[in-house]
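Example 3.2
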Amino acid sequence: PWPHFHLLRDDRRLRLTLIAWMLMGFGNLMLLPLRVEYLGNPRYGIDASTTLIAVLTVVIPSIVRLSTMPMFGWVFDRLSFFSSRILVNFLFALYVAAFFTGTSMTGLVVGAMLLGVGSAGGDLTWNLWVTKFAPHGFVPDYMAVHTFFTGLRGLVAPMVAFTLLDSYPLTTLMWVSAGLMSLATVQLFFIRGTANRGIVQQ
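Structure, written as tokens:
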């Protein structure tokens, strides 16, 4: 049932990179459903209509993501995985700062656009990073392990966010998520300077 998990033992660089992915993904996935809470709950001072919520959480990010995907294809071809992922993390941090720190429509729109740009880069690096990272012949194996942990955090992070929201203000969760993203970025800086290790064959 766990055919590729030996890679976590055999490849230290993969192990550290997946930890960075987990930190970044967990922080981002905690905030994604909280955008609706932030926009729709009157306690946060916005009390947006369902139409405005849809525009800010779906329409704007989707349009921007689609239009900027070719740009990130160009970036991904020319930068290392670590450099492109650090850039994407920085864009997500800007989105959090713009979207969750005020109630002005300008900040919300800018935050939604930054989320769209970051999502374009995030989608591309998520799908293709193993092609630059994995040794020849191991791309499906690496992707299998990566996808497993993606599904795990995708299931757990939103539940954790709404559970914590019962005890802590949304701004606290925003800072927690921003901290996880920052830790992930710092870890990527350190991993980027390490040499890639060979893989022990099955």
